[in-house]
Amino acid sequence: EAGVVQSPRYKIIEKKQPVAFWCNPISGHNTLYWYRQNLGQGPELLIRYENEEAVDDSQLPKDRFSAERLKGVDSTLKIQPAELGDSAVYLCASSLELQGSAFFGQGTRLTVV
Amino acid sequence: GQQLNQSPQSMFIQEGEDVSMNCTSSSIFNTWLWYKQDPGEGPVLLIALYKAGELTSNGRLTAQFGITRKDSFLNISASIPSDVGIYFCAGGTSYGKLTFGQGTILTVHP
Predict the structure, then answer these.
(1) Residue B2: which pLDDT band, with cuts at 50, 70 and 90?
(2) Which of A42, A18, A44 is nearest to A33 (CA)?
(3) Set of chain A residues whose Cβ sits within 8 Å of the Cβ of B102
(4) How many Cα atoms sit within 13 Å of A7 on the Cβ side?
(5) Longest dimension (CA), chain B
(6) B85 in contact with A at a CB cutoff of 8 Å?
(7) Which of A26, A67, B49, B84 is most buried when burial is the number of CB atoms within 10 A of its CB?
(8) How many angstroms separate the CA atoms of B93 and B32, rounded?
(9) pLDDT tens digits, residue range A65-98?
(10) Which of A31, A42, A98 sits opposite B103 (nearest CB)?
């Protein structure tokens, strides 16, 4: 069974440009997470979906970040415009149920120059 | 917000030695998960704990869910070079939120 798939793996953009990340969770997993991981730190939650509903977006900087999970399957995270401080690894994870184990994709390493 | 204190921050050990790391929190969690992350990769789930007091093994790895539900430990026995990496604990709430520790960097000298 395929794991969580993320693309792209790497992205380098100039500040003020937009960027989008895509995630396809494990088939059948209702819960989808987007995390941001800064160098030397643990992942920090940006947004969590139950099916197509965003149930926790309290840590998402809504002035520049947006996310969607149409049809409750794959998801897109967008930053517009990007800032230098957005450089980080963006991780997507999914779990079968609310309190289930979360499985991560390989992440997208974003560098904003 | 919820915070996890993971210790130690880093460990340098000889191959064959046993390793122990732990996480503590001021908040109660319903689940404890332990992950390993290699450079340039996403975290990989090692062990999941769902019940207070639960002790679970996965090969050379053993983890326990503290009886107070505020802590967990991970032990690695007879370490090998491929155990090198960053280990993260994560506490999960009843409504599905996962909070991660800051990680323990493990270095194993052959």
Answers:
(1) low
(2) A44
(3) 41-42
(4) 3
(5) 43
(6) no
(7) B49
(8) 9
(9) 999 998 889 999 999 999 999 999 999 999 987 6
(10) A42
Which neighbouring-strand residues pair with B65? B72
The beta-carbon neighbor of A48 closest among B90, B96, B100 is B96
Residue with tokens 């050990």: B13
Token pair, residue B4, equals: 């996890």
What tokens does B37 get? 């992350």
With CA atoms as reference, the chain A residue closest to B6 would be: A42
Q: At A65, which amino acid appears? A: F
Per-residue pLDDT of B89-104, as tens digits, reads 999 988 788 999 999 9
CB atoms within 10 A of CB A30: 17
Structure tokens at A73: 């399957």
Whole-angstrom distance, CA of residue B36 vs CA of residue B76: 12
